[in-house]
Design brief:
It is a single chain. This protein has 95 residues and is an all-alpha fold. The protein has a domain of 47 residues. 80% of the residues lie in helices and 0% in strands. Helix 2 packs antiparallel against helix 3. The protein starts with a helix and ends in a 14-residue tail after the last helix. The mean pLDDT is 77.
């Protein structure tokens, strides 16, 4: 039997033991980081739009950017408010 196949079959219980949730947590952390960067860019773009004189588009861009950048914290606050405190990705403690 091929040794690489044998080694990969021996590693399957390790994958099922809990590294799936750890992998999902890391993936969600990357998504949160990308969302934060994109939200910050939207807020800056909204400031430039207001500076150019397009206040309506600038205000909407700033509000949208704040929602995008703060989405993980908003969702964590909703989970805490409804009593579901066990989430895969931790964004910090709420008092």
């Amino acid at each position: 039997m091929n040794t690489s196949l044998l080694l990969s079959l021996q590693a399957l219980p390790v994958l099922a033991a809990g590294s799936l949730s750890q992998g999902a947590s890391k993936a969600m952390g990357i998504v949160m980081l990308i969302g934060f960067i994109f939200g910050t860019i939207c807020v800056i773009g909204g400031g430039f739009a207001i500076r150019r004189g397009d206040t309506d588009a600038g205000k909407l861009s700033i509000i949208g950017g704040l929602i995008i950048a703060g989405a993980p914290v908003i969702v964590k606050a909703l989970f805490t408010a409804f009593g579901v405190d066990s989430s895969t990705v931790d964004v910090g403690a709420f008092q």
